[in-house]
Amino acid sequence: MLKFLKRFYIFIIFTFLYAPIAVLIAYSFNSSKSSKWTGFTFDWYIQLFQDKQIMNSWGVTLRVAIFSAIIATIIGTMAAIGIANMKKRTRSAVLSVNNIPVTNPDIITGVSLMLLFIALRIERGEITLLLAHITFNIPYVILSVLPKLHQADNMTYEAALDLGATPFSAFWKVVFHEIKPGIVTGFILAFTLSFDDFMISNYTGGTAQTLAVTIFSMTKKKINPKIYALSSIMFLTVLILLIIVNLRQDDNNSKKERKLKKVEKNL
Amino acid sequence: MENNIIIDLKNISMEYGNEKVLDNINLYIRDKEFVTLLGPSGCGKTTTLRIIGGFINQTSGNVYFEGKEISKVPPYKRQLNTVFQKYALFSHLNVFENVAFGLRLKKGKEKLDEKVIKEKVSEMLKLVNLSGYEKRDINSLSGGQQQRVAIVRALVNHPKVLLLDEPLGALDLKLRKDMQTELKKIQQRLGITFIYVTHDQEEALSMSDTIVVMNEGKIQQIGTPQDIYNEPKNAFVADFIGESNILDGIMKKDCLVNIFGQDIECVDVGFEENESVDVVIRPEDIIITSPEEGIFSGTVTSLTFKGVHFEMVIQCDGFEFLAHNTIASQPGEKIGLKVKPFDFHIMKKSKKECEK
After folding, report:
1. What angle do CA B282, B288, B294 make, to 5 degrees?
2. Which of A96, A133, A251, B186 could form a disulfide with A68 if both were Cys (CB 3.0 to 4.6 A apart)?
3. Which residues of chain A does B157 touch, with a Cβ-Cβ cutoff of 8 Å?
4. Which among A162, A174, A266 has the least Cβ separation from residue B90?
5. Does A177 touch chain B (CB under 8 A)?
6. pLDDT score of B353 more than 80
7. Interval B164-181: pLDDT, tens
8. B102, B140, B143: residue with CB nearest A163
9. Among residues of chain A, what percentage have pLDDT more than 70?
10. Rounded mean pLDDT of B289-312?
């Protein structure tokens, strides 16, 4: 009985979490524009891909997500290396500065970036959008690379130097491999955050509209089920990315476990 | 002898903020010598090793390698290699690639053929009985095997000096003993200078040509293992190397020391009259006799079986003697203690205690 209650409780929770999305996905296949179910159709998906505005937003979203993730990963990784080598006091100061944008409401980041671009007289478009996304992605990359740097002990870096590697090649041949999982996770995280961002994109994109912004502006008018179709695709994209991130972490963990078991056997 | 000195440390001091970690270290190391830096943790032995390796820079003083000052030379240009405390192996590379790491870094004219690399690595793995492990993952090896990989990875470049930072610290006792013998053999076969850091005095005594005992950033004594054990220079060395009884004494004149109010014959000379001294007696040098025949007499308070011998604590006039003997005396028994004149080691009081 208790077991049943436990399961039921979890079932309720997941229902509340996922029912709205399930409804959304269901409506994206509804042949009627109203909330009445009138039959199954792919029409909205077909219309979606014929809509120039939406296709344009797809392009903007993907370009900004990919480039901002790449650039933020490079800058964030370099920053993390710098931070890891700081003295303790400076390090904790820099880290708390790094954490402010993470906890700061998006709307404040968005409005302040908009004001900055206006003050600098930079016309808002895809470039400002990209700059804004790089900015808010960097702290997340730092946060995912830094723990790996702490895990990787400094000894292997010194060992590489000792064997004749210059500091530069010691980084590429040794340290980079040790922190690679953190870098990849940081990249995927940055891509996902950029992909589903609305608030900051809304204020900094100007003429360049991301999918989220397009959907928002479309819902202000009469709602077209194309939006349901689009939202379903976006949901699936983010879901797949998150599953990849989780699987990677599981994979790392189970690899470690297997290694440990092997070592135990050898001992 | 002067001309085969390979490493020479001159007036090395190291400070972190206000903390003096090394205080005016002077030490030379000869080619092909097995030198051990021995001391408790925090004595500066690892710092000394890291200065020789080039990982940190001394606050003052000079490091000479074959007569040339190398303080400004970065670690990757120094002709010495290091075996690190926790091995520091590259876990993304297999055993072969770990060992080949140093060889693959050679550029330009020195660049090695894949065939040569293969030969050198196999030769090295054979040296430590790891042939056939080339493709193995580092993390699938046992501690002892990882240790061997770390050693040959450092040896593959044929360094003139190998630095070893407590390399056996993480191994269990049996494995450690085996590795000690193996390391000594490797050192003799390859004819490389070893500078070995440890806090384990037994390890130091059994492997070294020369032991450098360090404490609080200062060198306490440099000598052969026999010298260090038999003729410790001060109470710290005596206490750190092996177990010992350290008694307060007063030097009456040459070859006569006063302990617990009795004048006792010894063999030490060169002290001032009535100078306060430390008298060191090794537990195995105490001979147990009847209370009448002994120099000191007392009551046994504890008896422990140690395998090769018994360890006894004997209470004499408020001082607890530690004695080793193959014959057990039971607790409560009254016995006499005798020590041969040359088994009293008399040394000047260490400065600190004088200040007190």
Report:
1. 100
2. A133
3. 163-164
4. A174
5. yes
6. no
7. 999 888 788 888 888 899
8. B102
9. 93
10. 89
Q: For residue B298, give every residue at least 6 positions away whose Cβ sits within 8 Å of its Cβ, in sequence order, or none.
A: B314, B315, B316, B317, B321, B334, B335, B337
Q: How far is CA A240 from CA A188, A232, B272, in A?
A: 11, 12, 86
How many residues does the structure list for chain B? 356
Q: Do A156 and B89 touch (CB under 8 A)?
A: yes
| pLDDT value of position A254 | 64
> What would the two tokens of residue B314 be?
């004997």
- Encode pLDDT of A204-227 as tens digits: 988 888 988 888 888 887 778 888
pLDDT at A260: 59
Mind telling me how many Å the CA of B82 is from chain A's nearest CA? 7
Q: How many CB atoms lie within 10 A of CB A212?
A: 22
Q: Is the pLDDT of residue A250 over 80?
A: no
Domains of chain A and CATH, by start: 51-221 (1.10.3720.10)
Q: Would the pLDDT of B354 be above 70?
A: no
With contact defined as beta carbons under 8 Å apart, do A146 and A86 qualify?
Answer: no
Report the mean per-residue pLDDT for chain A: 87
pLDDT of A251 above 80: no
Q: What value does the mean pLDDT of chain B take?
A: 89
For the stretch B96-101, contacts whose Cβ atoms lie closer than 8 Å and that sit 24 or more positions apart, written own/partner, are B96/B121, B96/B125, B96/B134, B96/B135, B98/B138, B98/B149, B98/B153, B99/B124, B99/B125, B99/B149, B99/B152, B99/B153, B99/B156, B100/B156, B101/A160, B101/A163, B101/A165, B101/A173, B101/B153
- Sequence-ordered strand ranges (E) for chain A: none
Q: Which two tokens stand for residue B263?
A: 């004048």
Cβ <8 Å between A161 and B75: yes
CA of B175: which chain A residue's CA is closest? A267
How far is it, in rounded angstroms, from Cα B284 to Cα A111? Answer: 82
Quick one: tokens of B347?
């040394």
Does B185 contact chain A (CB < 8 Å)?
Answer: no
What is the set of domains in chain B, with CATH numbers?
Answer: 2-235 (3.40.50.300), 243-355 (2.40.50.140)
